[in-house]
């Protein structure tokens, strides 16, 4: 992990097209501004993990949802 020190209104550039700017610092909280192309998703970690869990859940069919598939009739 790269660890950098930045002050308010200073930025970090990732690649050629992602800019992270320190917008505000209040106590133990830091506000970040993130500029990235619209095709690059940007999420807080907890939101990203929730999306991944939901995608995994959605990719596993519930057996009751597959009733009738493959030419079989429900009992």
Question: What features would you describe in this structure?
Answer:
The protein has 75 residues and is α+β, with helices and mostly antiparallel strands. It has a domain at 11-60. The protein has one helix and three strands; from the N terminus they run βββα. The protein has a three-stranded antiparallel β-sheet with strand order 1-2-3, with no helix packed on it. Strand 1 and strand 2 (18-26) form a beta hairpin. The longest helix is centred in the last third of the chain and has 15 residues, at 45-59. The termini are far apart. The model has no long low-confidence stretch (mean pLDDT 90).
Secondary structure blueprint with pairings:
Elements: E1 11-14, E2 18-26, E3 29-35, H1 45-59
Antiparallel strand pairs: 1-2, 2-3
